[in-house]
Design brief:
Length: about 575
């Protein structure tokens, strides 16, 4: 295990952040008010705490029957108190836009709670627990060691030894973050994975709320080969750019320099074959994939996404970034390419089932995870008590399904690729420094500034005091002057003191193996969250507080307004936790 440098420890000490270097015992506070469900699920959590293998223990019943929360697809954020004016819901719940495959049409969920009888109870009990004492028992040195350790590289051999039949991690050195990729985002190991730089989705995936992450895409081999079936980097880059243009409905897109003579096609429409940096013909793929079906807003069959969720890493200067340790590894593959009318029927059937009172259910694909019903499988890997990655349980996988199957704002059930920096500038490992707060398509102000205003805070529960202290006045209104010109890093990355607390809070959840009660890295119960919601009586939003929104970003408008500025925030206030 790599130890934090003396320089970093000295920095933390001089800024008053270090909380001691000895590890305290992790006994649960005897005075803690544990929920009744906690005791009912002790058997499940105890089995997970005792299991050291790469597979979770099998339940005594069918996995669905063994679930604690059959409505695990409803995330904790859906239980926020809107108080009739605060709307963080708009980034998930939207009606269909022209041409989109996603016709969930759930914009009405911004203005009214609409849960099943079971879903009206907030099952995410970890939100209501005070873990401050246990967090205080973890030293700064211990948590810095923990987040800088590698728990990814041994996942592949452990899965192979266990006879795992699903996807096995095949991207070497991913624990080393940007070093695993070249300057254009292509994995150095030849695996075909490509990293891209995207704007984190508001606000669950903002570092200030608990995690960093990265996302990679891989297209099937036919999209990486030339017309003769030989591997071609140029063909792959051209096809990735063409796909991006179609996911975003762009008429043209920039690219790394490509030699059209190698591709055998005039992609910029100038009547000659030469080296180009812009593709204006995005109507078809090139190379061996030239005859493959292409439709806007749809990924081709065989597309894969790799998403790692990580702790908040910290360098020797106290700057926050992606950690080596991974909280989760998430994998998606598109096994079947349905057309838009078929997908529309899927949404219609889902609405019928909900209206009839059926609880959500997904087909188990064995080691490939769960089928979301529209062509994609999802399998996750999560930390065991020792911090080694293991296969997620059925219930832990179900947690991911709602966002990738049942909300109206996604494009082909995904988030990040549509939020990639456009074109050539967006290929490469995620880097929030210098990234402008681009507005969403159809809007004029920065997306995150807009979210602050509409949500009334820096998270769904308006419980992030550090964001409130930085960017809001004493009346709870956003101070636009404090936001103006800041880059994404400065807007959504926490101070070192908060980062340490967030890491420690999640470390407690790992030690407990209590993921079925929620994964939010909180140590005090957040404000503004219901423990139960009434579809009839809970206050809802007026029409004036309901918003249209597009997940895509207007990067041209952002660039025209100038790049953001970046600075390092070591501490804001000892109370801003």
């Amino acid at each position: 295990m790599k130890r934090p440098s003396a320089k970093l420890i000295a920095l933390l000490l001089t800024t008053g952040l270090a909380s001691g270097l000895a590890t305290a015992a992790r006994a649960v506070d005897a005075e803690e008010n544990l929920p009744e469900a906690w005791f009912a699920q002790q058997g499940t959590m105890e089995k997970l705490r005792e299991e050291t293998g790469v597979r979770p223990p099998k339940p005594d019943q069918h996995p669905v029957a063994a679930m604690y929360n059959r409505e695990a697809i409803i995330p904790p954020q859906c239980y926020t108190r809107t108080e009739g004016k605060h709307n963080p819901c708009y980034v998930c719940h939207q009606d269909a836009l022209p041409g989109r495959e996603n016709v969930m049409n759930d914009r009405d969920l911004q203005e009214a709670y609409s849960f099943s009888d079971l879903g009206q109870t907030n099952h995410w009990a970890n939100l209501f627990r005070d873990r401050a004492q246990r967090v205080a028992g973890i030293s700064d040195r211990e948590i810095l060691d923990w987040v800088d350790d590698d728990n990814y590289s041994d996942l592949q051999p452990r899965l192979q030894a266990a006879g795992f039949k699903g996807w096995i991690p095949d991207l070497e050195n991913l624990e080393e973050r940007a070093d695993a990729f070249d300057e254009q985002g292509i994995a150095r190991d030849g695996s075909g994975w490509v990293a891209f730089n995207y704007k984190p989705f508001p606000s669950t995936f903002w570092p200030t709320n608990g995690s960093t992450d990265d996302v990679m895409i891989r297209l099937p081999a036919i999209y990486r080969e030339d017309a003769k079936g030989e591997p071609s980097r140029a063909v792959y880059q051209a096809n990735l750019a063409i796909l991006e243009a179609n996911i975003k409905e762009l008429g043209s897109i920039t690219t790394a320099p490509l030699d059209e003579r190698e591709l055998g096609v005039d992609l910029n429409g100038d009547g000659a074959l030469a080296v180009i940096t812009e593709i204006t013909d995005v109507s078809r793929y090139v190379g061996a994939a030239r005859e493959q079906y292409l439709e806007p807003f749809l990924y081709p069959k065989g597309t894969e996404f790799l998403h790692t969720v990580r702790y908040l890493g910290m360098d020797d200067e106290g700057r926050i970034g992606v950690s080596r340790r991974m909280k989760e590894v998430r994998y998606m593959k598109k096994w079947q390419a349905y057309n838009k009318p078929t997908l529309a029927r899927y949404y219609e059937e889902e609405a019928f089932e909900k209206e009839a009172g059926f609880l959500p259910g997904y087909t188990r694909l064995g080691d490939w995870g769960l089928d979301n019903g529209s062509g994609w499988s999802i399998q996750g890997f999560i930390e065991n008590r020792e911090g080694k990655l293991r296969v997620a349980t059925h219930e832990e996988n179900t947690f991911c399904m709602g966002c990738h199957s049942s909300i109206g704002s996604t494009i082909d059930k995904t988030f990040s690729f549509a939020r990639k920096i456009d074109g050539a500038a967006g290929w490469g490992y995620i880097n929030l420094k210098g990234m402008p707060d681009a507005p969403n398509v159809g809007e004029f102000e920065g997306e995150f500034l807009t979210y602050f205003r509409r949500a009334g805070g820096g998270d769904e529960f308006r419980s992030n005091p550090e964001v409130l202290q930085r960017f809001f006045d004493e009346n709870g209104k956003v101070d636009a002057d404090k936001v103006a010109g800041l880059d994404v890093y400065d807007l959504i990355v926490p101070s070192a003191v908060r980062a340490l607390q967030l890491n420690k809070a999640y470390r407690v959840i790992v030690d407990e193996q209590s993921f079925l009660f929620g994964r939010d890295a909180t140590w005090h119960p957040p404000m503004n969250v219901y423990d139960a919601v009434s579809n009839v009586d809970s206050p809802t939003l007026e029409e004036t507080r309901i918003f249209d929104w597009d997940i895509r970003l207007d990067w041209q408008a952002a660039n025209a307004s100038g790049e953001g500025r970046s600075k390092t925030v070591i501490a804001v206030s000892q109370d801003a936790h």
